[in-house]
Each structure stands twice: as structure tokens, then as C-alpha cells.
Specification:
Thioredoxin_CS, 6 helices, Jelly Rolls, Related to thioredoxin-like protein, alpha+beta, disulfide bond, Glutaredoxin
Length: 351
């Protein structure tokens, strides 16, 4: 379901500027081709990054909401042909020509950024930068709870792809063999900075926001999606503490088997009988300074993905348990699936 708000009055817009810390605004017109071309990208960002009272995505139809458009110097005078995403219709305003579409990002009610024209990369970069800032300043209010804020991670996303962790169907998440003394499965897709990166007593006071295996080192994670995805990369964060005299230190994952498009979670014995679409072996050098390992998938095998099963087969070390703090999914979002229905798609094995 779209999280974007279609503004119906000046009062509604002004109310959102007061109630939401950041408001991302798409000024558009129905007759503008570039507006229509970039709309799916805008909707994807909205689905991933919207947070109640923190970051809100809205659309303003300049033909229907002339008062709002005029207030911010945007007034359309016609409906020319705009056939390509790279084209931008230059139209008149009270002070200066404005490209169509125009995106304005408000922070604390004031214009923070303005993007003129249909530039997907610039739009994504600016919005995600502000979202990361919002995450850093609003962790206590729950920003990032759906898994898309990631300013604490290092490095850039693969070119042309975005963080699609927000497409996980949270209600359908399952995790087998987890120790109930630690966090629930939902902490894995939380975008907030793991307390394991903070360290000390302050982190301990915030609770155990990670998962650990229970009877042995194996874990089985099932993630269904709200949309059909093209999955390019997985990132797994694991932050075991330093060894202490009396502490049993969990291990980082070593062998991970990945199964796309399963209709339900696999049992451990069942997984041993089913060939994995991809098997990964991680070593110490694969983990960066944030405790994150980046796993590049065989992209051709993960083109129409409605669910993923991650089977943590063993850990890297001599311990008895494995710890995972976060999981992030990077790729492209496709069509929304009908909720409640998850059909198995051919994964290339022919069975």
C-alpha cells in the first residue's frame, strides 16, 4: 500500500509541515511525461523511507492546488508534450523558470532542498541523505523501524539499485532456532544503528536488539515480500562482543544457503535435501568495520523474488551459537503481490 499522501488542500499541506520533521514534496502535473516516468521511483522511496511524524512523502498536483504551487513559486501555464524521462519542461513562475517536475524537501517547515527536473539519482541521493540524518536524530522515536534507514553503514549502494528492505512483509517473518532471551525476528530488518556498534552500558540499557541461535549454531530465516523483487545484494551485520573471562561469545555466520521463492519457511532437515540456489562462505576478511558482510548474488537467479529463505548452516569459530544483528536487501522493486498469496516461482532448478 502506498504511503504517499496526495495533498487535497493548503490546510492539509501546512499541517503536515508542522507535524512531520521532514516532508518530501513532488510538485507534478497529470500532463507531464517526466512526472509520470519518475513517479514509480518516488513511490518506491516513499514505501522504503516513510516514517510517521519523521519523514512524509506527498504529491501536489499544481493544476488542482494552485494556491500551494503559487506560494512556492510554481505556476503552470500549459500542457506541452513531455515524452522522455530526460526531458524537463521549463515553465513560468513568478520569479524564475522551474523545471517539471520539481521536488522540494522541507525540514522543520522550511525548504531544505530543491530538485528541478526528473533526475532519479539525485532525488534518491538527497532523500536518503536526509533520511539518514533523521534516523540519527530520532532513534528514540522509532525512526528506521521498518528497515530502510542505514546511515551507519559504510560504502555506497551498487549503482542503479536501492535498499528494498522496506518491502519485507513483516507479519510473515519467521526465524527458527532463535534464543527467546534476545530480540525478535523483526529487529533484523530494523534500519536503526545496532547497539552493538555503540558498546558499553548505554547499549546494554537499550535491550538486546539482535538475535542469537539457541540449541546450536544454525538459524533459518524466512522473509516474504510485499512486491516482486530483483535482488542484487544482501548485507548481513553481526557484532559479537569481545571475549570475556566468563562469557560465551557467539560466532558470526560462516556458511549461508539462500533459497528464493519458497512458499513457507524450510525445516532444517528439509533444507539439507534441497539444493540451495546460492551458497556463501564468509571469512574474517568479509566483515567491515561496522560488522557487515556484503554478499553479491547471482543476479540472474534472483530476478522475480517473492520470498527468501536464509539458512545459516554454521558459524566461524569454536562457539556454539551464531549472532545476527541486521539484514539488508538491495535490488529493485517490481509489482505488488496480492497479500496472503505467495506462490512458488521457478528458481532455475527445474523442480
Amino acid at each position: 500500500m502506498s504511503k504517499t499522501i496526495n495533498i487535497s488542500s493548503s490546510e492539509e499541506f501546512e499541517g503536515l509541515l508542522k507535524s512531520s520533521r521532514i516532508v518530501v514534496t513532488d510538485f507534478y502535473a497529470d500532463w507531464c511525461g517526466p512526472c509520470k516516468a519518475i513517479a514509480p521511483i518516488y513511490e518506491q522511496l516513499s514505501a522504503q523511507l516513510s516514517r510517521q511524524n519523521q519523514i512524509t512523502f506527498v504529491k501536489v498536483n499544481v493544476d488542482n492546488q494552485k494556491e500551494i504551487a503559487a506560494k512556492y513559486g510554481i505556476t503552470a501555464y500549459g500542457a506541452p508534450h513531455c515524452p522522455k524521462l530526460t526531458d524537463s519542461f521549463i515553465w513560468e513562475s513568478a520569479n524564475t523558470p522551474i523545471s517539471m517536475p520539481t521536488f522540494m524537501i522541507f525540514k522543520a517547515g522550511k525548504v531544505e532542498e530543491k530538485i528541478q527536473g526528473a533526475d532519479p539519482r539525485k532525488l534518491q541521493a538527497v532523500i536518503k541523505k536526509l533520511a539518514a540524518e533523521a534516523e540519527g536524530g530520532a532513534s528514540s522515536s522509532g525512526f528506521g523501524a521498518s528497515g530502510s534507514g542505514s546511515g551507519w553503514r559504510k560504502g555506497d549502494l551498487p549503482r542503479g539499485y536501492t535498499d528494498v528492505t522496506g518491502e519485507v512483509d513483516v507479519k510473515g517473518l519467521e526465524l527458527l532456532n532463535s534464543d527467546s532471551e534476545f530480540g525478535s525476528v523483526r529487529v533484523l530488518i530494523d534500519g536503526a544503528k545496532p547497539t552493538g556498534l555503540s558498546g558499553g552500558k548505554a547499549a546494554e540499557s537499550k535491550g538486546k536488539d539482535w538475535v542469537e541461535s539457541d540449541t546450536d549454531e544454525q538459524l533459518m530465516l524466512f522473509m516474504p515480500f510485499q512486491s516482486t523483487l530483483k535482488v542484487h545484494t544482501l548485507q548481513i551485520t553481526s557484532l559479537p562482543p569481545k571475549a570475556g573471562d566468563d562469557d560465551e561469545v557467539p560466532m558470526r555466520p560462516k556458511t549461508i544457503q539462500i533459497y528464493p521463492n519458497r512458499a513457507h519457511i524450510l525445516g532444517f532437515e528439509e533444507a539439507e535435501d534441497i539444493p540451495a540456489t546460492q551458497s556463501i562462505t564468509l571469512s574474517e576478511k568479509d566483515w567491515d568495520e561496522t560488522g557487515t558482510a556484503t554478499i553479491s548474488l547471482r543476479f540472474v537467479k534472483f530476478q522475480n523474488v517473492m520470498s527468501l529463505v536464509l539458512f545459516i548452516v554454521d558459524g566461524d569459530g569454536e562457539g556454539e551459537k551464531v549472532r545476527i544483528d541486521r539484514v539488508r536487501i538491495i535490488g529493485e522493486t517490481g509489482e505488488k503481490r496480492e497479500m496472503g498469496k505467495l506462490e512458488k516461482v521457478d528458481d532455475g532448478h527445474g523442480h
